[in-house]
Amino acid sequence: MVRAMKYVLWIIVALAALLGGAYVYLRTPDTDPAAMVAKYGGAEAKFADAAGGKRIHFRDQGNPDARVIVMLHGNSASLHTWEPLAARLGDDYRIITYDQPGHGLTGPSADEDYSAGGLMKALDEVAAAAGIDRFTLVGNSMGGWIAWRYTLAHPNRVDALVLIDASGAPLREGEKEAPSTLGFKLLKIKWLRPLLEEITPRSIIERSLKDAIADDTLVTDAMVDRYWELLRYPGNRRAAALRTDAEREPELFARIPEITAPTLILWGAEDQLIYPTAAETFKERLTYARAIIYDGVGHAPMEEAPDRTAADIRAFLVEVLPATGALSEPAMEPVP
Predict the structure, then answer these.
(1) Tell me: the pLDDT tens digits for 68-119?
(2) Is the N end or the C end of the chain the one with fewer CB atoms within 10 Å?
(3) Using an 8 Å Cβ cutoff, are 210 and 219 in contact?
């Protein structure tokens, strides 16, 4: 009996040592905040004071005397996703981008509020820091959800709306959930989340980006490193898990016809996170809207097809907004 007990104890110790060694070997620690600010902040970096002593990382670029466009990135992305559009639209518009709470150099919220209310509060804080009252809102994925939610809540502040593969629309009849990405699939497994906060292999990030972007060649080493390192900014991995449970408020989608701001809907035909049919769902319910679908493009047209995306946004804004002054009535005709 004693010998058997010693044998069992030896097995337990060996397994513990094996698991401990595997944890040490596989663990991907948080990145250093100062190093991340130095690497990803750049000369354009600004920080807006936010509630609870938090600071929100943002950039204010482009033509300071032009109309303002505020761009909202998607889940687990950062303001860097908008740099291709900022470069193409900056001569004609003032471009405000920022890392939403729980992302990038902004880091987590002290109250861990990643609901629409919490994320819209951050938009107000950035707007206050930038000294802007009215703007066009451009949002991708989760950022698209926040964009149309904000437009519902503050219709007098939004001149025009651009939804790029935006979340929040219900599935159409007969549709099943979209395939999604490896990273989001893993985060939906609740018992895995504590482990994913400590062990986040770079390969998961690379695979997830290739799931989201139609052309794998666009997923560069620099892009993977940026997503991987900023996800590991202290607190961002926990925030990613908490956002997974954030409801997209399906009951509020019924109110989307209340939006009167002229709206442009852009979508990648190869989107594996949100079906392109959602573009039609948005268009059917919005009063002033048009939709454009990009063949061969996935979930991030602003990075995958920046020339087309920027050109379509510019043409849309030239059409629907007067050259100067506030927008009084939508310049687009209502959809049939």
Answers:
(1) 999 999 999 999 999 999 999 999 999 999 999 999 999 999 899 999 999 9
(2) C
(3) yes
CA dihedral over 210, 196, 73, 96, signed as positive or negative:
negative
pLDDT in tens, 287-330: 899 999 999 999 999 999 999 999 999 999 999 997 654 444 44
CATH class of 34-320: alpha beta
Exposed/middle/buried for 244, CB within 10 Å: 0-12, 13-18, 19+?
middle
Report the run of H or E that residue 147 belongs to, with start and end: helix 142-153
**229, 236 Cβ separation under 8 angstroms:** no
70 in Cβ contact with 79 (< 8 Å):
no
165: three-class secondary structure by DSSP: coil
Distance CA 214, CA 300 (A): 9
Phi, psi (rounded to 5 degrees) for 117: -60, -45
> In 3D, which of 137, 147, 138, 136 has the Cα closest to residue 169?
147
Cβ atoms < 10 Å from Cβ of 182 = 18
Task: Look up the pTM and report it.
Answer: 0.88
Burial of 192 (0-12, 13-18, 19+ CB in 10 A): middle
Whose structure tokens read 């449970």? 245
Task: Yes or no: say if 321 and 161 are a contact pair by the CB < 8 Å rule.
Answer: no
Q: How far apart are CA 307 and CA 287, in angstroms?
A: 27
C-alpha distances out from residue 218 to 209, 212, 303, Å: 9, 11, 8
Of 74, 96, 243, 87, the closest CA to residue 165 belongs to 74
Distance CA 151, CA 145 (A): 10
CA distance 215 to 312: 21
CA atoms within a 13 Å half-sphere pointing along the CA-CB vector of 200: 28
Look-up of token digits 């009063």? 287
Q: Is the pLDDT at 13 greater than 60, yes or no?
A: no
pLDDT value at 265 more than 50: yes
**CA 17 – CA 23 distance, rounded (Å):** 10
Q: Kindly state the DSSP code that residue 200 receives in the 8-state scheme.
A: -
